[in-house]
Amino acid sequence: MSDLVVGEDGLARPPWASTDPLLRAYYDTEWGMPVRDERGLFERLSLEAFQSGLSWATILRKRPAFRAAFDDFDPERVARYGDADVARLMADAGIVRNARKVAATITNARATLDLRADGGLPELVWSHQPETTPVPTSQAEVPTTSPQSVALAGSLRARGFAFVGPTTMHALMEAVGVVDTHLVGSHRRGTSGLWREDGSRA
Questions:
Q1: Distance from the CA of 158 to the CA of which of 4, 24, 71, 185 falls in 20 to 30 A?
Q2: Rounded-to-integer distance, Cα 187 and Cα 85, Å
Q3: Cβ 108 vs Cβ 125: under 8 Å
């Protein structure tokens, strides 16, 4: 348990989730829990893309502003965005104002709608769930990519998605429960109901 920090509440967490109250709450209640709805996955896909090159804490603090700016990540509404919406978003200091990432979010909303004819975004993402999940005992053992994240990135790119590289998709898979990379000994290990502590499917 060398990489785990035991808090005043007696619960063991990784260092990144042990001090900042916002990150701790996210870790304790949301990260790694299954997300299977289209809007929820589109939001997390979008936020992971915006996080590229930045800290997750930055994105998490801006999430309320992101939700307001992107119509609560309703893909049908975002898919209709035009030049005026892009200008509005690029003037919004509450979000990350990156033209390529804004454009990718709109592109991905349209691709999400197109996917409905072929099973939908949740089906595609969850079809890449592996048979086993990592069993890391230290942060150094937590992978940043996997064969499944490489495959998911390729599947999404083939369907018109942008900003969906293997590392970003691995982070998405961790965040929405497709894999469980909680450290062994963490109070969150295995709590998604999908994975046992030994890495096998529940």
A1: 71
A2: 42
A3: no
Beta carbons within 8 Å of 112's beta carbon, 6+ residues apart? 38, 42, 75, 79, 121
Q: For residue 77, give every residue at least 6 positions away whose Cβ sits within 8 Å of its Cβ, in sequence order, or none.
A: 71
| CATH code, domain with 107 | 1.10.340.30
Q: Is residue 115 one of the residues assigned to a domain?
A: yes
Spatial distance between the Cα atoms of 77 and 106, rounded to a whole number of angstroms = 9
Q: Tell me which DSSP letter residue 11 carries.
A: -
Residue 201 placed within a domain: no
Exposure string of 54-70, with b = 16+ CB inside 10 Å and e = fewer, is: eebeebbebbeebeebb
Active site residues: 26, 48, 56
Lookup result for tokens 């072929």:
118
How many domains is the chain partitioned into structurally?
1
Q: 182 a known binding residue?
A: yes
Mean pLDDT by 10 residues, the chain (202 residues): 87 95 97 98 98 95 98 98 98 98 98 97 98 95 97 98 97 98 96 94 94
Q: Which residues pair with 200 in a beta bridge?
A: 132
Query: Is 131 inside a domain boundary?
Result: yes
- Is residue 24 situated within a structural domain? no
Q: What is the pLDDT of residue 1?
A: 47
For the full predicted model, state whether its pTM sits above 0.90.
yes
